[in-house]
Design a protein that fits this description.
111 residues, mainly alpha, 3 helices, 43% helix
């Protein structure tokens, strides 16, 4: 491990990162990050790219990988940050979640 990852671990574990896998995993899972201040709004934009909408069905399931659902910033879209982006992420998550439940019901009924 090197770079920023190693530096963050050094902050918590000291200069010698332990070879004990359990301690390392536990540290990574609870690694504290202290935020000092928000970044300027000009830097706060959602990322572009992701799964193209043509690759999804109406329930946001991948057509080529049945049982795999996509939502939020997994999707290929650009949106303003803040409330609009959160609302879109939550709404697509709800749609994908409902689609997954329906898909599982259909799968178990046909089994």
């Amino acid at each position: 491990m090197s770079g920023v990852k190693a530096a963050l671990l050094h902050e918590v574990l000291g200069k010698t990162i332990t070879a004990d896998a359990a301690t390392l995993a536990a540290t990574l899972k609870r690694l504290p990050l202290t935020l000092l201040r928000p970044r300027p709004i000009d830097e706060a934009i959602s990322s572009a790219g992701g799964v193209r909408l043509e690759a999804l069905d109406d329930h946001l399931m991948l057509r080529d990988l049945p049982g795999v659902f996509c939502a939020g910033e997994m999707l290929d879209w650009e949106a303003p940050t803040g409330g609009y982006l959160l609302t879109a992420c939550f709404a697509s998550g709800l749609r994908a979640g409902r689609g997954a439940v329906d898909w599982l019901r259909e799968a178990s009924a046909s089994a």
